[in-house]
Amino acid sequence: xxxxxxxxxxxGLIAAVYLGTLLWVRVTNPVCLQQNMYRTWEKSYVMHPGxxxxxxxxxxNNNHQKPVALSESQGYGMWITIMAAKKGWASQKDFDRFVDxxxxxxxxxxxxxxxxxxxxxxxxxxxxxxxxxxxVNSATDGDVYIDVALVAAARQWPSKADxxxxxxxxxxxxxxxxxxxxxxxxxxxxxxxxKDSAYWxxxxxxxxxxxxxxxxxxATGDSRWQTVNNAMLxxxxxxxxxxxxxxxxxxxWITRDSAKPVKPxxxxxxxxxxxxxxxxxxxxxxxxxxxxxxxxxxxxMLRFFSHQQYVTAGYSLNGKRLVKYQSASFSAPIFLAxxxxxxxxxxxxxxxxKYIFSHPLTRKNYYDAxxxxxxxxxxxx
Length: 381
Fold this sequence. Notes:
- There is one protein chain.
- By secondary structure, this protein is mainly α.
- It has a domain at 1-44 and 326-381.
- 49% of the residues lie in helices and 11% in strands.
- It contains twelve helices and twelve strands.
- It has a three-stranded antiparallel β-sheet with strand order 3-6-7. Strands 10-11-12 form a three-stranded antiparallel β-sheet, with helices on one face. A two-stranded antiparallel ribbon has the order 1-2.
- The longest helix is centred in the N-terminal third of the chain and has 41 residues, at 5-45.
């Protein structure tokens, strides 16, 4: 059967529409995925104890009847909200609710906890009398993430930039006053660690954030952030060199010129000296840094992971699997790191770790969900 020219034109139009649709789906799919994940995360985990406050619920199985807020999750919540705002999915009011909750739950220092700071109390929860209470002491990782989110907010909303910058400088000053060891030149794990503490020389490897430190140094004009960056990166390099895998532990003992993994149950769990649920964030923390030391540590780890049949939820530092199952808390930071290094020999990891986006975002695990959303918003571009 011979087709006339009008039939060919019709066929051509159909083909063009089909190809156009495929292209549209290819281009917009990541955006739709990002938006859906953010919306699901926000609806599932963000709670509003008052009209002007928000926090991220970290309780087991996301129990809304017995919620738990952490300074760590507050920092992540503020950072995620900034990224969503850049895409038009969150508002300045959404961000300010997180700010107001943080300001309402600041920590106090001193022998009698009498001196107010801009550090955040590390945990809030309902006690047995159903009163919303805040634990004393801070956690450094949460404070640093809140700080960098405030700097980003000043860029995102210029009309309120002076307010955000002022808060960022006050928080930065308190981090360096109460969460800094001048002997090791590194951040401690919280304001409860003083020079008389047994944990004075303890470093949490996921607190090594060179990209963030660089931003804070520029935003605050405080050169101590560059000192912190150099000291903590050098110690991370020391730890990376100690094993062919390049894996680093959750925690390490450090001096000004050395580092060694801690023993099991030193501060948190029996996995303290392994690559576990703290150190799993290290690839994410190093991903955007242009510091050669950070990239050296990161790429050594990525080479190890790229030769694994699949990435599991924890390893000994010599590369032995601690468990047989996978976890988005481990895979999401790896995916984000590889997204910054496409075409450098790790594309198999980029493809394999995308499994975290192949099913709906979990509504029962704050840590998995939050790290997955960060990986989606920063890595799916």
